[in-house]
Design goal:
With 293 residues, the protein is α/β, with parallel strands linked by helices. The protein contains seven helices and nine strands. The longest helix has 15 residues.
Length: 293
């Protein structure tokens, strides 16, 4: 595949750019923003996340690992002509460029891009306010409202665990029940539910070749992340989410989607997305449990 597929960035995530051949972690942006049903603008998110990453501290408060210690190569933003071209290129990246990397982070763009990841026998843990389980939305089977349904169809319901859920249509409720999809609702999230999610992941992960964490920023309550395309109240706090992520087994792939800088006047959503990105890149699974705050 060609590096001409990317628009290079002058501000790599975290501020450090390792050569791609020696990097252990890979980052790339996918500024796809074609199926917005409420507030378009998330195509601006990859550059926004990079901007804030250069203006916040890079030390992970849970593991004390600094982002400067991680060998990261930021490819820049993917260039694509249409959805067919985009699906082809995302699949090519995950099949070729990421195969010798310890961790890959994809920056959206809308949540649709998660469904373009090729079947690599992964367990998907998905933070989202919405079920994203519609068969089609506004006549489009590749709408952001159909993302998790496409993943279930490709990988099976056992490959999907959703949390932070609080906004579902009747169609999605019926589909979720018929497919026995594991969902955890934000209104019940506490330490007990966090431990239930962790046990669910641990019980399934041995059947898969890796863990994929997908973060739709609207999974957070809009009090913490107002700059999203489809905000929903009664969401999770950053502390709840970070506490869960810090206790997960090794994460192989992740994405951060649906940040919308056009509706993030104060910048707090961008700061949160950037902290989340650096947090994921600096997760050190050898850290002692007692060091987790």
């Amino acid at each position: 595949m060609s590096m001409n597929w990317f628009i290079p960035t002058d501000f790599p995530l975290g501020g450090f750019q390792e050569d791609i051949t020696t990097a252990t972690s890979l980052v790339f942006g996918v500024p796809y923003d074609q199926t917005a049903s409420f507030r378009p603008g998330c195509g601006n998110a990859p550059s926004n996340i990079r901007y804030y990453s250069s203006n916040i501290e890079g030390i992970n408060p849970y593991t004390y690992v600094d982002i400067s210690e991680v060998l990261i190569h930021d490819l820049g933003d993917l260039i694509f002509e249409d959805i067919t071209d985009l699906k082809f290129k995302v699949a090519k990246i995950f099949n070729e460029l990421t195969k010798d990397k310890e961790f890959t982070l994809m920056l959206g763009g809308e949540h649709t891009i998660t469904s373009f990841v090729p079947n690599k026998n992964l367990l998907y843990l998905i933070l989202d306010a919405h079920g994203d389980l519609r068969d089609t939305y506004l006549g489009n089977p590749f709408s952001h409202a159909c993302t998790s349904r496409r993943i279930v169809e490709q990988n099976g319901s056992e490959a999907v665990i959703q949390f932070g859920i609080r906004a579902l249509s009747k169609e999605e409720i019926n589909y979720s029940r018929s497919q026995n999809i594991t969902q955890y609702y934000s209104i019940s999230h506490n330490g007990k539910q966090r431990d239930q999610i962790l046990k669910e992941v641990e019980s399934r992960i041995s059947s898969f070749d890796g863990l994929y964490l997908s973060i739709d920023m609207d999974g957070f309550d809009p009090a913490y992340a107002p700059g999203v395309g489809n905000p929903e109240t009664l969401g999770l706090s950053p502390k709840q989410v970070f506490d869960l992520i810090s206790r997960l087994p090794r994460i192989n792939y992740a994405d951060i989607t649906e940040l919308n800088p056009l509706f993030d006047i104060s910048g707090i959503s961008g700061v949160l997305a950037s902290r989340l990105a650096s947090f994921l890149l600096t997760m050190n699974k050898s850290v002692d449990e007692e060091n987790i705050l």
